[in-house]
Amino acid sequence: MIRFDEVSVRYGEEEAPALGPLDLTVPEGELCLVVGPSGVGKSTLLNAVSGLVPHFTGGTLRGRVTVAGRDTREHRPRDLADVVGTVGQDPLAHFVTDTVEDELAYGMESLGLPRDTMRRRVEETLDLLGLAGLRDRPIATLSGGQQQRVAIGSVLTAHPRVLVLDEPTSALDPAAAEEVLAVLQRLVHDLGTTVLMAEHRLERVVQYADRIVLLPGPGRAAVPGEPAAVMARSPVHPPVVALGRLAGWDPLPLSVRDARRRAAGLRERLALAPVPASAAFGERSGAGGPLLTARRLGVRRGRAEVLRGVGLTLGRGETVALMGRNGAGKSTLLRTLVGMHAPAAGSVELAGRDGTSAVVPHRTPPGRLLRHVGLVPQDPRDLLFTESVAAECAAADADAGAAPGTCRALLTRLLPGVRDTAHPRDLSEGQRLALALAVVLAAAPPVLLLDEPTRGLDYAAKARLVACLRELADEGHCVLLATHDVELAAELAARTVVLADGEVVADGPTAEVVTASPAFAPQVAKVLAPAPWLTVAQVRAGLDRPTDGGA
Ligand SMILES: Nc1ncnc2c1ncn2[C@@H]1O[C@H](COP(=O)(O)OP(=O)(O)OP(=O)(O)O)[C@@H](O)[C@H]1O
Ligand SMILES: Nc1ncnc2c1ncn2[C@@H]1O[C@H](COP(=O)(O)OP(=O)(O)OP(=O)(O)O)[C@@H](O)[C@H]1O
Fold first, then answer.
1. What CATH number is associated with residue 194?
2. What residue intervals traverse the membrane (predicted)?
């Protein structure tokens, strides 16, 4: 159904190709997953199938890509629209209408489908993706995850034979991600749809893949193959695979279920080992009075009461995960804490520096607020304004009053290999996020807020981000991160707060909060439950203890 013959893609004057040379065949009715580190060319591969490369992104494509027999060089994306449905990394860029219902119908209208068919499919899709309550809403008012669902729904309604999905679950809460993957699997199994998908959160997707293509790194040949075989050698892999490698399981498990079946021996070896402290088990610090206090906070957007009675204090050195369903109000809370929304009820206060009086975010000018609190927004583009990576870094140092070179050094630490001359617009998703993180980290504000900070990041970049944030917490900063990444929360946060429908419904030690609900439990916890292990790092440390005979 999809074929690449000696394909390579080069952007601008770059010497090295961003992708290829690549040969690849994806048969009809298979779900093929593209995996690899950030910036390795996954989106470029996907865009070559939908025809966006080279027609819209620029760059030179060599070799031949065919989809359902059509050469993408001769067919522009709109000439492929009857066969290929594409969901890109940035749903906002693709929306053509204003409301949810219109967006779901748009693709079918342009294909000229009969009215009653359109009507029926819109209703089906609203139900399938949990969007019925939002049908009349302007898309601009939806949360990130709600928008991602609309983007997915809008391509499903047209029933394309090929679906190209670039990180389709990156903004979805864990339960919504499972639902979307179940829908895709049904299309593959029942209708013979062909799916090509790139995704970093492999714990969510590998078990659904019929085939995986690994792009291991720049200049290295792609490795296509059967999922377990590719995972056995892949530098990027989900926690169950890491656990399987550690325990020496063969074949490697790809799902929690597979791993549980093999875990008896591992449980025995771990039974006597004390669970080593990880951040998730660490002491809560918070000495010296809170850095941030929100009391009975209420926030309205339009006619909706989005936050109600939210109470939250963050102390020095604390790292707190903020979790909850799509649309629960996480982004709204973070934005309110940096003064972007004025509270309709209650209050927010940040500790003043050196005994000065408290700061109220929405009444403080941005230049001054920067020294108290920083937010890395859900869309990193909201933070990037200049023409190049170097200019962005220089501006960040100047705004923050940091030594020149601070921001650039942070960027290199988070994700090596991002060029100074690149335009932020042309960066890969992970590269752009790393840049936004570096810009905010350069100011090292006492209170650091991160909205979904691992979208598009590979596991290595995530580990480096964790290390950076731990250092900041050790220096006394407090970190609040809104995330759907249960693995990240388990790794990094000692405390987790759960929002539901605008209210705080849980606030406590991460180990307790995440294991209390299957939706939030990380893979290792599910495999070893009821034993209280959360991460592979903990299990490794447990096995290494001399008292139990070592690994
Ligand atoms: N339009 C463009 N112009 C110039 N360079 C580009 C363009 N699009 C992508 N690149 C570069 O090509 C390389 C591959 O980017 P691509 O987006 O395909 O990576 P990716 O594997 O999808 O990354 P991520 O996992 O971060 O989404 C990156 O170094 C990126 O900076
Ligand atoms: N102008 C508006 N009118 C009505 N509802 C709105 C408006 N703006 C936002 N909302 C709603 O407020 C809720 C909270 O949105 P928010 O972006 O804070 O959620 P979130 O928890 O960050 O979600 P996600 O995980 O999807 O990013 C959502 O249900 C959203 O649809």
1. 3.40.50.300
2. none
Q: Are residues 35 and 142 in the same domain?
A: yes
Q: Which two tokens stand for residue 180?
A: 């979307």
| Ligand 1 lining (C-beta closer than 6 Å) | 11-12, 18, 36, 38-44, 57-58, 422, 426-431, 456
Ligand 1 mutation target, pool 55, 420, 428, 437, most atoms within 8 A of CB: 428
Q: Side-chain half-sphere of 101: how many Cα atoms within 13 Å?
A: 10
Residue 335 CA, closest ligand 2 atom number: 18
Q: Are strands 194-198 and 31-35 parallel, antiparallel or unpaired?
A: parallel
| 85 membership: H or E segment, kind and range | strand 84-87
Neighbours of 3 (CB within 10 A): 18
Residues spanned by the domain of 460: 279-522
pLDDT band per the 50, 70, 90 thresholds, residue 91: confident
pLDDT in tens, 363-407: 998 888 888 999 999 888 889 999 999 999 999 999 988 999 999
Residue 205 sits in the same domain as residue 297: no
Determine the length of the chain.
551
Whole-angstrom distance, CA of residue 157 vs CA of residue 153: 6
Say how many domains are in the chain: 3
313 Cβ neighbours under 8 A, 6+ residues apart: 286, 290, 292, 293, 294
Q: For the chain, how far is it from start to end, CA to CA, in angstroms?
A: 45
Distance CA 528, CA 506 (A): 23
Give the closest ligand to the alpha carbon of residue 148.
2
Residues 65, 188 within the same domain: yes
Nearest to 326 by CA among 204, 482, 486: 482
Look at residues 164, 192, 227 and tell me which one is the last residue of a structural domain.
Answer: 227
Query: What amino acid is encoded at 244 in this protein?
Result: G
Q: How do beta strands 2-10 and 60-67 pair?
A: antiparallel
pTM: 0.91
Residue 490 belongs to a domain: yes
Nearest ligand, CA 431: 1
DSSP letter for each residue of 311-345: EEEEETT-EEEEE-STTSSHHHHHHHHTTSS--SE
Which tens digits make up the pLDDT trace of 42-70? 999 999 999 888 888 888 999 999 999 99
In a domain, 216, yes or no: yes
Please indicate, yes or no, whether residues 43 and 178 belong to a single structural domain of this protein: yes
